[in-house]
Design brief:
The protein has 96 residues and is of the alpha+beta class. The protein is 26% helix and 34% strand. It has a four-stranded mixed β-sheet, with helices on one face.
Length: 96
């Protein structure tokens, strides 16, 4: 670690089924990013989800994250490797 602190964080949000589809994921990602940029020296915030998790991808994009690409076979779940979608938000992406 440099004297400036961490230059990136990897974050994730998990919601109970009854809380899904109500915008809470978007709000949580947005609030966490705002907090980290305001209170740390972090330069980059990363988030990832499975290719099939379209709701999480939508929440990340609504929160201001940029889709960077698909990484093949990044996770193992239910007896199979799954592809992941990577997102990021940079300090420079934040409004003035």
């Amino acid at each position: 670690m440099s004297s400036r602190g961490y230059y990136y964080w990897n974050v994730g949000v998990a919601l109970l089924p009854e809380a899904r589809g109500q915008g809470y994921g978007t709000q949580a990602h947005r609030a966490l990013a705002r907090y980290l940029f305001a209170h740390t020296t972090v330069q980059r915030i990363e988030a990832a989800t499975e290719v099939g998790n379209v709701a999480e991808q939508r929440a990340l994009e609504k929160a201001g994250f940029t889709r960077e690409g698909v990484l093949r076979s990044t996770g193992w779940r239910d007896g199979a490797y799954r592809d992941g979608v990577w997102y990021s938000m940079l300090r420079a992406d934040q409004p003035g």
